[in-house]
Design goal:
Chitin-binding type-1 domain-containing protein; five-stranded antiparallel β-sheet; metal-binding; globular; seven-stranded mixed barrel; single chain; binds 2-acetamido-2-deoxy-beta-D-glucopyranose; 942 residues; metal ion binding; hydrolase activity; alpha+beta; 19% strand; carbohydrate metabolism; Immunoglobulin-like
């Protein structure tokens, strides 16, 4: 009987030692003159600066799970504390949190693939940087050496400084000795300098860490987007992620961390083996025309070429470091001599014998589409010439893409009408190079086969990736990752050591948001050195439409009489096809195993990792917006992700812990098992009438809109601005500037500058649902006989939409369907669904009339013009007199989208006339928008 006492004794013991050791790791984003403290149970504990800027501490846990980090001065006084409370979880000890930053990992999925990669793309040891997190780098450099660099970026351009470097990732810390150098030429003109560290020992297989400042543009995305575009067409270039940079006391801000194209990169990315024999490589600066100038270095020493990597074992070079450059230039010159008047395949074959033509043509397409005015084609620089000993061929490798997505910047190097003339897509850089040099590219494009291949690549690239639909998700994901750090970064420039010479830009959060979308940042010399003439999406839209016209015409022989069959040899020149399958009803079973990350500490089983197996039957549509979820988006698209209270998908604690929305993904704490099986087949045929009416806007729009609970945010997803007197911008931010209160200002969610007399053109789209079949297999056959029409808009309900289409859903006060407390609790609208889990058998007689003001509208003529690249199509002239009356129950009003370029069930109809709504819910006029999958309910279709 003795043994029976044992379990009892153990449980007593467990209760007694319930206090656990909790470990905290946090990265400071301030200089070394500050420390970090842990605020727990209202006490502040100074943390240990283990490897600055990483601070750690361990405490015995108490009753509360909540804590915060605070900023301390050197006397230990609290200077500032974090805005948000944190919650300790089993994950906390194993990650490096960042002061004043959410624990965020944003998966950045690659762009759609146009072609398979031409080269190997990495090894186990040398992988692309992880762009789902933001790294932090701190360098402690010898002050005098570092001062020489920062105060004399041009004077002391060959100098270096000795440093120790701490490089911190989400889970690791690396400490190295390193030498610091300045990089770039133009980038030295800016106060926020660009840097390179040569390390004593590799990090991530790299001997060098390179940090590009992107000081000249307001998005910090241009370089990264170009990198992803090259990847999409299979052209090798550096990988790129984001990092914060602090050197000594200088907090520089957010940078792109990129690879250098040295031996380690070449062996791993080009040859797929870190032990591969690599060849000689040259870096180039403007003026590297590739003309043959002689055999040795002195012939080429005009500042355009620099030997980067030398192959000491090159059997042909005989110790001449410039042999490979000279050899290539000479071979190319000979090729021109022999084949310039030869349009046959033999000319192409001869070139491909010694040169990787396919790689360059793909690169040229991206350069034309992004208007890369500082790279190979337009500026004969920023590319490497590499002799690939494995293939015995030369190749060109692009790098440094900050001069992209800007257009011509009115430079005389480019034609004035560059955006009006589709042929600009191939002749854009004819006069752009130093001395209008057109030697290399001119000789290439002289061949019809080569030119045709360029045209085909351009068309494939535009069809598959270079369009707003395909690139926007990437832009939005990067925004999600960097937005907070970008704003922090902008604010640092005036706090930076003001003896550092150089230009500054004072960009704002609005500049950032506007410029990743459709807004330019105007030239304003009192504030900024650099304007940005095109928003990223605006540029992509404009250029893709122009070049699609070019490519289609060119392929149809409009620009050249000869139609030659293309034959460029390549290992992977065929376009990859992606098949998208869309299923209406999803029954997903998610099994998630949450285990502690594999850290070095195997001896601390403080809390046995809980294995959560949650089975979720989703009858909620899957979100089509990357990383977004919640009542407005649907369930997280990826398996195993949690939907945070702010409607973002992810796996961190912030996503899966408090406020996690179990209807839209998994959650840490709750096993939600819903066993309702349901099959819904809906066939909807829609008829559309578009009428443009000119209405007088009446001033008082008193709809009950909730006040936003998210700082500075407003709009359909957040509610009204919380502060008095603020305007809600078209991008859903609160503020008082013109950008907030002027064009696009949303009067429902704040005040606006508009005076009441302004006449606005409003688009009304009427959709008539003619047929609807719903097959439901449900356990509980609740007889819900509603006189209210069923909503045809996914997840929407309420006076404007009707009842929730799916059984068992509640209609929230904001007119969204769902099953959470937010939907079924306070404000739940029983006419349009169930409330508090009680089905509404009450047959509502109340036919809610929501038509606000009925204005007799003027006769208007809408002329819709749809232009496809080759043929002018359909000119529909709809003439209609509408005296708007309260219409019958079947007639439903689809709201006009308030989100720029977005449409579809979650956004409404395209705001602009004559636009189509693509299957991915973007507005536009291309075939991709108006062709297969086009949604007639939300815009035009072919
Ligand atoms: C910097 O490091 C180099 C070797 O890496 C060394 O030769 C030099 O003396 C160092 N300079 C200082 C000031 O420590
Ligand atoms: C840096 O160099 C010093 C002096 O050579 C050496 O003692 C130290 O261990 C090195 N640190 C690292 C992290 O390599
Ligand atoms: C085709 O060639 C003929 C004669 O060389 C020329 O007159 C004509 O303009 C060309 N057509 C196009 C579309 O370039
Ligand atoms: C942990 O490490 C083991 C062995 O290296 C590996 O099989 C497993 O996938 C790792 N788990 C995680 C979560 O990384
Ligand atoms: C778990 O469920 C309880 C009620 O069952 C609820 O109060 C709590 O908020 C839920 N937690 C999460 C993370 O969903």
């Amino acid at each position: 009987m003795k043994f029976e006492l044992l379990p009892f004794a153990l449980s007593c013991l467990t209760a007694f030692i319930k206090a656990e050791s909790w470990k905290f790791n946090v990265v400071s984003i301030k200089g070394p003159s500050y420390d970090i403290g842990l605020k727990y149970n209202n006490e502040v504990l100074k943390m240990e600066p283990s490897e600055f800027p990483l601070f750690t501490t361990t405490i015995e846990s108490g009753s509360s799970n909540n804590y915060k980090y605070v900023l301390l001065d050197k006397d230990g006084n609290v200077v500032e504390e974090e805005e948000n409370e944190r919650t300790y979880t089993s994950e906390t000890s194993s990650i490096n949190e960042v002061y004043n930053r959410e624990n965020k990992v944003v998966d950045i999925p690659p762009l759609p693939k146009v072609y398979d990669p031409l080269f190997k793309s990495g090894t186990n040891k040398y992988q692309e940087y992880d762009d789902s997190e933001i790294y932090t780098l701190y360098a402690d450099c010898i002050e005098s050496e570092y001062n020489d660099l920062k105060y004399g970026p041009f004077v002391n351009n060959e100098k270096t400084a000795n440093c120790t470097v701490n490089f911190i990732t989400r889970t690791e810390t690396y400490q190295r000795n390193a030498t610091l150098e300045l990089i770039g030429y133009d980038s030295r003109k800016y106060k926020k300098l660009s840097w390179k560290f040569k390390l004593s020992k590799k990090i991530f297989g790299r001997k060098t860490l390179k940090f590009r400042a992107g000081a000249n543009e307001p998005t910090l995305m241009r370089d990264k987007l170009s990198v992803e575009l090259y990847k999409s067409v299979g052209v090798p270039t550096y990988s790129s992620a984001y990092s914060r940079v602090i050197i000594n006391d200088d907090v520089y801000g957010l940078y792109n961390i990129v690879d250098t194209l040295g031996t380690n990169w070449l062996s791993s990315i080009i040859h797929g083996n870190e032990k591969a024999h690599t060849g000689t490589s040259y870096k180039t600066y403007a003026g590297a025309s590739l003309e043959y100038l002689g055999e040795t270095q002195k012939d080429y020493s005009i500042g355009s070429y620099k030997l980067d990597e030398i192959d000491e074992d090159d059997p042909e070079a005989n110790g001449n470091n410039y042999y490979r450059l000279a050899h290539f230039a000479k071979t190319y010159a000979n090729w021109i001599d022999q084949y310039q008047n030869d349009q046959s395949q033999a000319a192409v074959d001869a070139l491909e014998n010694f040169f990787n033509l396919e790689s360059l043509l793909r690169q040229m397409v991206i350069e034309s589409l992004t208007f890369a005015f500082d790279d190979f084609w337009a500026n004969s620089g920023n590319y490497a010439l590499y002799y690939n000993p494995e293939q015995s061929k030369y190749q060109i490798i692009p790098y440094d893409f900050d001069g992209t997505f800007h257009g011509s910047k009115s430079s005389k190097r480019f034609d004035k009408d560059y955006l009006e003339n589709p042929e600009n897509c191939i002749n854009w850089a004819d006069h752009a190079r130093v001395n209008e040099d057109n030697y290399f590219v001119g000789a290439l494009l002289n061949h019809d086969i080569i030119r045709n291949r360029y045209n085909v690549i351009m068309k494939d690239t535009i069809d598959r990736v270079f369009n707003v639909d395909s690139i926007s998700p990437l832009i939005e994901n990067i925004r999600n990752l960097i937005e907070v750090d970008v704003v922090w970064n902008f604010g640092l420039i005036d706090e930076l050591d003001n003896e550092i010479p150089g230009y500054v830009n004072h960009y704002t959060h609005e500049d950032f948001i506007g410029n990743i979308n459709y807004d330019r940042v105007k030239y304003n010399p009192s504030v900024n050195r650099n304007s940005a003439d095109f928003g990223l999406k605006q540029w992509i839209k404009t250029r893709s439409e122009e070049c699609q016209t070019y490519a289609v015409n060119a392929i149809n022989g409009e620009y050249n009489n000869k139609t030659t069959t293309t034959s460029i040899s390549t290992t992977a020149a065929t376009a990859t096809t992606t098949t998208t399958t869309t299923t209406t009803t999803t029954t997903t079973t998610t099994t998630t195993t949450t285990s502690k990350s594999n850290n070095t500490n195997t001896d601390t089983p403080t809390s046995t990792s809980s294995i959560t197996t949650s089975t979720i039957k989703k009858y909620i549509p899957t979100s089509t917006v990357p990383s977004r979820c919640g009542p407005e988006y649907g369930a997280c698209a990826r398996e195993g992700q949690c939907c945070s209270k702010y409607n973002y998908c992810g796996t961190s604690d912030a996503h899966c812990g408090a406020g996690c929305q179990s209807e839209f993904g998994i959650c840490n704490n709750n096993n939600t098992t819903t066993t309702t099986k349901k099959t819904t087949t809906t066939t909807t045929t829609t008829k559309k009438t578009t009428t443009t009416t000119t209405t007088k806007k009446t001033s008082t729009t008193s709809r009950k809109i909730p006040t936003s609970t998210v700082s500075s945010r407003c709009g359909p997803e957040y509610g009204a601005c919380a502060r008095e007197g603020q305007c809600c911008s078209k991008y859903n931010y609160c503020g008082t500037s013109d950008a907030h209160c002027g064009t696009g200002c949303q009067s429902e969610f704040g005040i606006c500058n508009n005076n009441n007399t302004t006449t606005t053109t409003k688009k009304t789209t009427t959709t008539t649902t003619t047929k609807k079949t719903t097959t439901t297999t449900t356990k509980k056959t609740s007889t819900t006989s509603k006189k209210i029409p069923t909503s045809t808009v996914s997840s929407r309900c309420g006076p404007e939409y009707g009842a929730c289409a799916l059984e068992g859903q509640c209609c929230s006060k904001y007119n969204y369907c769902g099953t959470s407390d937010a939907h079924c609790g306070t404000g739940c609208q029983s006419e349009f669904g169930i409330c508090n889990n009680k089905p509404t058998t009450t047959t509502t007689k109340k036919t809610t009339t929501t038509t606000k003001k009925t204005t007799t509208t003027k006769k208007t003529t809408t002329t819709t013009k749809k232009t496809t690249t080759t043929t002018k199509k359909t000119t529909t002239t709809t003439k209609k007199t509408t005296t708007t009356k309260k219409t019958s129950t079947t007639s439903k009003k689809i709201p006009t989208s308030t989100v720029s370029s977005r449409c579809g069930p979650e956004y409404g109809a395209c705001a602009r006339e004559g636009q189509c709504c693509s299957k991915y819910n973007y507005c536009g006029t291309s075939d991709a928008h108006c062709g297969t999958g086009c949604q007639p309910a939300y815009g035009l279709c072919n």
